Amino acid sequence: MFTVIEKTVLAMSFLRIVSGGIEIFAALLMIKFNAVEKALLINSSLALIGPLILLSTTTIGLIGIVEKVSLLKMVWVFAGVACILYGVKQ
């Protein structure tokens, strides 16, 4: 009857909720300031936060499955994350 939520899933989802809250807050700031220059500054700040959240959630997830996944597969996951970060680098 009751569902038990894993701590790892809870931590990952909490980080994503915080990230979404930051995004909404940034959008509200853009509307409040009503200036393109300030909106670009706020948007640039979000570009720093996004990769940190991505790395944090990925790291938490990998720690949660460390016993179930081989070292080679973990290297592939980290390589994939590195490629994503390299691809979106400005």
UniProtKB/TrEMBL annotation:
One Pfam family, short name: DUF2619
TM spans (from-to): 12-33, 45-65, 71-88
Family matches, as InterPro entries: Uncharacterised_YqhV
Keyword annotations from UniProtKB, A to Z: Membrane, Transmembrane, Transmembrane helix
Keyword Membrane: yes
Name of the featured protein: DUF2619 domain-containing protein
